[in-house]
Amino acid sequence: MAIATQDTAVRTGRITRTFIYVVLIFFALFYLLPFFIMVINSVKPLSEITSGNMLALPQDPTFAPWASAWSTAQIGVEATGLKPYFLNSILMVVPAVAISTALGALNGYILTKWRFRGDTILFGLMLFSCFIPFQIVLIPMARILGELGLSGSLPGLILVHVVYGIGFSTLYFRNYYAAFPTELVKSAMIDGAGFFRIFWRIMLPVSGPIAVVCIIWQFTNIWNDFLFGVSFAGLSAQPMTVALNNLVQSSTGVKEYNVHFAGAILAALPTLFVYIVAGRYFVRGLMAGSVKG
Amino acid sequence: MASVDHAEGPDLRSRLQDWLPRLVLSPSIAAVMIFVYGFIVFTIYLSFTDSKMLPSYGLVGFDNYATLFGLSAWHTALVNLAIFASLYIVICMAIGLTLAIFLDQKIRGEGVLRPIYLYPMALSFIVTGTAWKWFLDPGIGLEHTMHLWGWESFKFGWIKDRDFAIYTLVLAAVWQSSGFVMAMFLAGLRGIDNEMLKAAQIDGASNWQLYRRIVIPLLRPAFMSAFVILAHLAIKSYDLVIALTGGGPGRATELPATFMYSYTFTRNQMGVGAASAVIMLMGVAAVMVPYIYAELREKS
Amino acid sequence: MSFLDIDNVTKSYGNVEVLHRVDIDVQEGEFLVLVGPSGCGKSTLLNMIAGLENITGGNISINGRVVNDVHPSKRNIAMVFQSYALYPNMTVGQNMTFGMEMHGIPKPERDRKLADVAKLLQIENLLDRKPGQLSGGQRQRVAMGRALVRDPDVFLFDEPLSNLDAKLRVDMRTEIKKLHQKLGTTIVYVTHDQIEALTLSTRIAVMNKGYVQQLGTAKEVYDDPANMFVASFMGSPSMNLIPAKIVEDNGALAAEITDASGRPVRLRLSRDGAGVRAHLERRVILGIRPEAITDAEGADRRASNLQVLGNDVAVTEPAGSDTFVTMTLSGKDCIARMRADAEARAGAHFDFTVNMDKAVLFDPETEERIDR
Question: Which end of chain B, C or N, has fewer beta carbons within 10 A?
Fold first, then answer.
């Protein structure tokens, strides 16, 4: 996370500094604790959880809960484990992220470098669409998906996520391209490059940082979505979050906490992975003012 | 100027180039216009109809809104939202600002701490809810652990308590978002001209005065952004409630988002559900529209 | 037949006209400089020549062809931008040949032209670098190289030197002038720096508020400004503009001003045409360049009308080669440019010599010249 550290002018005494470190470490523990508890309890047998201390390290580590969560746990009515739903999420996220990012890049390019009368209003409308409570579109969306024959299907979910992802991806690319010198585009025009050629040869090669930000953002949002999944996905198309909730909330039988935790971690792994691998670019890109909208 | 050739109009390529940008933009615009604004209009329309399980087109005026505001469940949801949103926003900002200021003191290990503060935002609210639900469960979580450690009198049963369950939502939501707010404030702090801070110190400002009189006022834009983002997240909160409390115990943690969902899809009161969605939209618009307007004006 | 003809061109945004009936003929091989303060419309005009902005009214033709509706890439022009606009993802060589590539020129020819221009500009060793690895001066050269390889009818320069530090700016200025003399290309050059305009141009168009205030050679614009705007914009320090009254003095016309202590002083005018006579006993503005006020030894020997003006010295500012002396005339600060070793002392009285051949007169209302 390379936010440039600056030579802060503030000087602090030793007692103040100790206090600062104590607070910082306390919060680090606060943020780490729930996840830590999930991890250690996901490798304990159920008996050890119910009888023992949640903070205790596993005495008899077992990966059976993970295996169960992945392939045999009861989700809704079928004992399929989370595997098929994980796959659903992947099949939903990849195209939705790709399409919404590509559209966002083009939109941002047009809204900054090919400006026309009324473009700011159009962008304002797109920007507001990022923040609407999605409850306002649930009812008509369900109907339209039905009319399009996409009810309950993965393509239907992809469509939904693309449509409601365009606002954010456009926002990111627009703010990024706004700082990109327009003279370069003019120069390329004089050199004889057209609309797509300028985009392809001049803009895209320098769009790496913002593309990373946009992809991480869309990936996280779409992967973590619950509302659209629970509203529009049929049984066979349910994404991971919905399946996890079904697993955890299922009221039949003994509550297998260790399996729930393993499932929760499975649901969190892709976003955590993306965050750990590319998080520094995300923060850097976000810092560059892209979130100020 | 006999040789000047006036006949030549814009060549085809130029004309195409003129229209191409708008052409390429149009699918996105169309999608937003239909799927966002068209749908908003449709939902507003539904909120004035007698729709029950399916949309129906008999207009009933403001009946649904009257029904909505007569419902105790809706009142509960609004009160809960007020409690939840105000605590969530204030606590997130307080923690975020404190951590950002502290992290900005040339802290050794900043590179390790920052990702730790930030990672919860990568998680789904469903995952967060699952973890906290269990952690807060008196029978098995924190209370149970304290008892095992010999602190027999320790009580922490908020999640099962009608009067306190809403605060567990605040706790989990703060856990998830405060690191993100920290990042926004940290970015603001790092953007402040260091020479100004040096000048203030030469003017004799203490650290406390420096932050209170100079730095925090300069963070105004970061406060605005953080407020807007947190406020709209609070109004939209749905997943976390479902995963952590399911709206319970009873209806103690019902929020407008869960209210809308259950009235529309399980209680078959679509008209009332639509009306509640419209109220939610108005809440978000009240926060976002002035902000977006100001941002866009400033930029153009 | 002019090479670049700007014929009655106007530009409006909505209802606001920002350029008013601009009429400039540029001959082949000319170096035209558009100069003026920011917002005067000079860059807009340049962008219209380039085709980056639409023309609201009038015509622009290049080499006998009206280009109003022609795409920028087909106008056979090249442009050097203020920020240089080098593509950050391409090497210097790729930057310079991108335009030719877009125009479908085969690779061997592109390479040959690239080599020629790189040699001319002495940037052969930079061709494989990325723009980010270059210094400001090198980027500037590459930007010019990119324009040169196109071999265009007209070169357009948009404040190309304003991002360079002072020393480099002077060097590059000389270099551009050399290049123009060597290649004989037609150039339209936009700047807000009047020194650049004076040194580089074969002709200058001084612009303000969307109007061309004056079009002429550097000497015409400097010595014979059309109005008070041109007079004060061109030259540094700028021309002294002193409130005065035209009076008759022993049968000749003179400008009456007051010295530092408020006493009236009369300076006989060299030019007393009908325009001046019409202003007899009326207020005018007397314009005198700082270098036309000197000590007796520093005065121009060939001048026909040298007048002595005794006045108190307010401030002296030695600037190495010259010493600038400030005094008060008609209640205004007035600067004289003296030899370095002139003996004016702050607070003391000094006899200044004013070369009235160089003085000009303006109407205070219209701000136009009255003695032309």
Answer: C
- Of B124, B84, B264, nearest to A245 by C-alpha is B124
Please answer yes or no on whether C1 and B14 come within 8 Å at the CB atom: no
Across the interface, do A206 and C89 touch by the CB < 8 Å criterion?
yes
Q: Which of C299, C294, C279, C281 is nearest to C365 (CA)?
A: C279
- A20 at interface of B, judged by CB pairs closer than 8 A: yes
Structural domain spans, chain C: 4-233, 240-362
Is the pLDDT score of B5 beyond 70?
Answer: no
Q: What domains can you pick out in chain B, each with its CATH number?
A: 71-299 (1.10.3720.10)
CATH of domain C4-233: 3.40.50.300
B92, B181 Cβ separation under 8 angstroms: yes
Which residues of chain A register pLDDT less than 70? 1-11, 251-253, 283-293
How large a percentage of chain C has pLDDT more than 70? 100
The CATH code of the domain at A83-292 is 1.10.3720.10
Closest CA–CA distance from residue A147 to any residue of chain B (Å): 14
Amino acid at B30: A
Place of tokens 């939705």: A96
Residue A141 and residue B35: Cβ atoms within 8 Å? yes
CB pairs under 8 A between B and C: 29
What residues of C are in contact with residue B3 (Cβ under 8 Å)? 1, 64
pLDDT of the residue at B159? 78
- Sign of the CA dihedral C157, C162, C166, C168? negative
Tokens in use for B187?
């970015």
Place of tokens 């509640």: B276
- The DSSP result for C302-368, as a single string, is T-S-EEEEEEE--EEEEETTEEEEEEEETTEEEEEEEETT----TTSEEEEEEEGGG-EEE-TTT-B
Residues with Cβ within 8 Å of residue C296, at least 6 apart in sequence = C308, C351, C353
> Looking at the partner chain, which of C72, C77, C83 has a beta carbon nearest the beta carbon of A181?
C83
> Could you read off the pLDDT of B65-87 as tens digits, one per residue?
988 888 888 988 999 999 999 99
Question: Residue for token digits 């404030």?
Answer: B185
Q: Which of C73, C82, C83 sits opposite A189 (nearest CB)?
A: C73
The angle at the Cα of C225, spanning C220 to C231, to the nearest 5 degrees, equals 130
Question: How many angstroms separate the CA atoms of B174 and C13, rounded?
Answer: 50
Read off the pLDDT of residues C213-271 as tens digits, 9 standing for 90 and up: 999 999 999 999 999 999 999 998 999 999 999 999 888 899 999 998 889 999 999 88
3-state helix, strand, coil in chain B (%, to 5): 75, 0, 25
Q: What distances in angstroms separate CA A250 from CA A35, A75, C315, one per listed residue?
A: 22, 8, 91
CATH number for the region C240-362 comes to 2.40.50.140
* Sheet strands (E) in C209-263: 211-216, 240-249, 252-258
C-alpha to C-alpha distance for B91 and B174, rounded to whole angstroms: 7
Cβ distance B40 to A137 less than 8 Å, yes or no, reads yes
Q: What are the extents of the domains in chain A?
A: 14-72, 83-292
* Token pair recorded at residue B119: 């990672």
In contact, B189 and B104? CB cutoff 8 Å? yes
**Whole-angstrom Cα distance, residue A108 to residue A106?**
5
Which residues on A lie below 8 Å from C62 (Cβ)? none
Residues of C in contact with A201 (CB under 8 A): 87, 98
Task: Give C163-178 pLDDT, tens digit per residue.
Answer: 888 888 998 999 999 9
Angle of helix C136-148 relative to helix C107-121, nearest 10 degrees, comes to 130
In A, which residues are within 8 Å of B291 by CB distance? 293
Please report residues of A whose CB lies closer than 8 A to that of B24: 106, 110, 195
Contact check, Cβ <8 Å, C102/A193: yes
Question: Which subunits sit against B, judged by 3+ Cβ pairs under 8 A?
Answer: A, C
pLDDT tier at C1, thresholds 50, 70, 90: low
